C-alpha cells in the first residue's frame, strides 16, 4: 500500500490544500496520507492564525489520515532545515512518496538536488541576503529560476531526500491559480493564496467563504485569528528587558544583530508596532523573513542547546488521525525507536517536549485554549 507524505502549514486550510489532497487520492486511491504540519509557529516566522489542533482537525475532516506535528525547533527555520526535520519524520513513518505544490511542477527536483548539493558560493557579501545569494548561484548552476517559494521548498525536500538516502519518490503538483504571496482574492476562482485569505480575515473587508472548506470557515468564525499584532507586546517586553548578552544567546543571533534589534526598539519607543520595528531592523543583509524567525526565537527564548536536544532526541507528536491513520501507526510503531507521543505528561515535557511545551504556553496566552496538558489527538 502506498504511504504518501505531505509537508504543510495549513495557515489556514483552504481549497488549494483540498485540491492537492484530491489529486493525491486520484493518483494513489489506496494510499494512506500522512501530513507533517507546523505547529503554532511557522517557517516564515509567524504565529499560526489558528492553533495546531484546530488546523489538524480540519485536515483530518477533509481527507488526511494522520497529522504529525513538526517540532517548533524545525518549524521556524530556513527552508533546508525545515525540510530536513519534516523529511526525517516522514522517513521514520514509512512514507514512500512525497507530494508537494510547485510553481514549476515540470522541474526535475531530484536532478536539481544532485546539481546543487555541493554548492559553495560566496555568501559573505554584506549587501545581499543569504537567500538571494543562494538563489543566484543555483540559477547560475542550473539555468533555472528557483526563486519562487514553493520551488525553493521543493528543492529543499529533494536535497533532504538525497541526504537521507533517497527513501521516497517526489511528485510535484502544479500550483493552481494564486501566487504564494498574492494578496488579492480572485473573482474567477475558488482557490486563493493563504496570504490573501489571511488578509481578508484580518481586515474583515472580504468574504472568504468560497475559498475555504466549511470546517475552516466555521473555525474562523468561532476562534480568535492571531497574528504578530497579538504577540508583539510580549516580544517587545522580551527585547526591552533582556540584556545584550542575553539576546546574544538566542538561536541564530549572529553578526552583532542583537545590538541592532535592541537599539532600534529603544529609538522607536513604546508606541511602535511590530511592523515599524521589524522594518527599521530590516536591511539588504537581514530579510523580513529572517528577522521574523529570530523574533519567534526571542519570543520563545530558544537557545542553541534547545535545537540540539530536538535534533538528538527525536519523537513523533500525533495531532490527529482517522481509522486508517491509527492502523498505520499501530503497524509502524514497533519499527520506530523513539517515542510516539499522543498525550503530554510532566515527564514527557521534561525529557522531550520542553521547547514545544513552552511554545504552546505562549500561544495559549493569546488564543485562550490549552495547547499541551489535557490535549489529545483529534480522532475521526
UniProtKB/TrEMBL annotation:
> Is ATP-binding set as a keyword in this record?
yes
Residues where ATP binds: 7-20, 101, 150, 175
Catalyzes what? Answer: cytidine(34) in elongator tRNA(Met) + acetate + ATP = N(4)-acetylcytidine(34) in elongator tRNA(Met) + AMP + diphosphate
Primary localization: cytoplasm
Q: What class of enzyme is it?
A: ligase
Name a single GO cellular component: cytoplasm
Q: Which SUPFAM superfamilies does this UniProt record tie to the protein?
A: Nucleotidylyl transferase
Extract the Pfam families matched here: HIGH_NTase1 (PF05636)
UniProt entry keywords in alphabetical sequence: ATP-binding, Cytoplasm, Ligase, Nucleotide-binding, RNA-binding, tRNA processing, tRNA-binding
- Listed EC numbers: 6.3.4.-
GO BP field: tRNA modification
Query: Which PANTHER family does UniProt cross-reference here?
Result: TRNA(MET) CYTIDINE ACETATE LIGASE
Name the family the entry cites.
Belongs to the TmcAL family.
Protein name as it appears in the record? tRNA(Met) cytidine acetate ligase
Q: Which organism is it from?
A: Liquorilactobacillus cacaonum DSM 21116
- Organism phylogeny: Bacteria, Bacillati, Bacillota, Bacilli, Lactobacillales
Q: Which gene encodes it?
A: tmcAL
Amino acid at each position: 500500500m502506498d504511504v504518501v507524505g505531505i509537508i504543510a502549514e495549513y495557515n489556514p486550510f483552504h481549497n488549494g490544500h483540498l485540491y492537492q489532497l484530491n489529486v493525491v487520492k486520484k493518483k494513489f486511491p489506496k494510499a494512506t496520507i500522512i501530513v507533517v504540519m507546523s505547529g503554532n509557529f511557522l517557517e516564515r516566522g509567524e504565529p499560526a492564525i489558528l492553533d495546531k489542533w484546530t488546523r489538524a482537525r480540519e485536515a483530518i475532516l477533509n481527507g488526511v489520515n494522520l497529522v504529525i506535528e513538526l517540532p517548533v525547533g524545525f518549524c521556524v527555520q530556513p527552508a533546508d532545515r525545515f525540510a530536513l526535520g519534516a523529511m526525517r519524520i516522514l522517513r521514520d513513518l514509512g512514507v514512500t512518496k512525497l507530494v508537494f505544490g510547485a510553481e514549476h511542477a515540470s522541474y526535475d527536483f531530484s536532478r536539481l538536488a544532485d546539481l546543487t548539493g555541493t554548492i559553495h558560493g560566496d555568501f559573505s557579501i554584506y549587501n545581499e541576503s543569504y537567500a538571494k545569494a543562494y538563489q543566484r548561484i543555483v540559477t547560475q548552476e542550473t539555468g533555472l529560476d528557483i526563486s519562487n517559494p514553493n520551488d525553493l521548498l521543493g528543492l529543499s525536500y529533494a536535497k533532504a531526500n538525497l541526504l537521507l538516502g533517497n527513501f521516497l519518490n517526489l511528485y510535484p503538483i502544479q500550483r493552481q491559480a494564486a501566487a504564494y504571496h498574492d494578496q488579492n482574492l480572485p473573482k474567477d476562482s475558488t482557490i486563493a493564496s493563504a496570504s490573501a485569505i489571511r488578509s481578508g480575515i484580518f481586515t474583515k473587508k472580504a468574504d472568504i467563504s468560497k475559498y475555504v472548506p466549511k470546517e475552516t470557515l466555521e473555525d474562523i468564525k468561532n476562534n480568535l485569528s492571531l497574528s504578530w499584532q497579538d504577540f508583539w507586546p510580549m516580544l517587545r517586553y522580551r527585547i526591552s528587558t533582556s540584556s545584550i548578552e542575553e539576546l546574544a544567546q538566542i538561536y541564530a543571533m549572529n553578526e552583532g544583530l542583537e545590538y541592532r534589534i535592541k537599539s532600534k526598539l529603544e529609538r522607536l519607543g513604546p508606541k511602535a508596532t511590530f511592523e515599524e520595528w521589524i522594518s527599521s531592523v530590516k536591511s539588504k543583509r537581514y530579510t523580513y523573513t529572517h528577522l521574523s524567525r529570530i523574533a519567534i526565537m526571542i519570543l520563545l527564548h530558544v537557545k542553541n542547546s534547545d535545537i540540539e536536544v530536538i535534533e538528538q532526541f527525536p519523537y513523533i507528536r500525533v495531532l490527529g488521525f482517522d481509522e486508517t491513520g491509527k492502523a498505520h501507526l499501530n503497524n509502524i510503531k514497533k519499527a520506530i525507536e523513539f517515542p510516539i507521543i499522543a498525550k503530554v505528561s510532566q515527564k514527557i515535557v521534561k525529557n522531550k517536549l520542553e521547547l514545544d511545551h513552552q511554545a504552546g504556553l505562549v500561544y495559549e496566552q493569546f488564543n485562550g485554549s490549552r495547547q499541551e496538558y489535557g490535549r489529545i489527538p483529534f480522532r475521526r
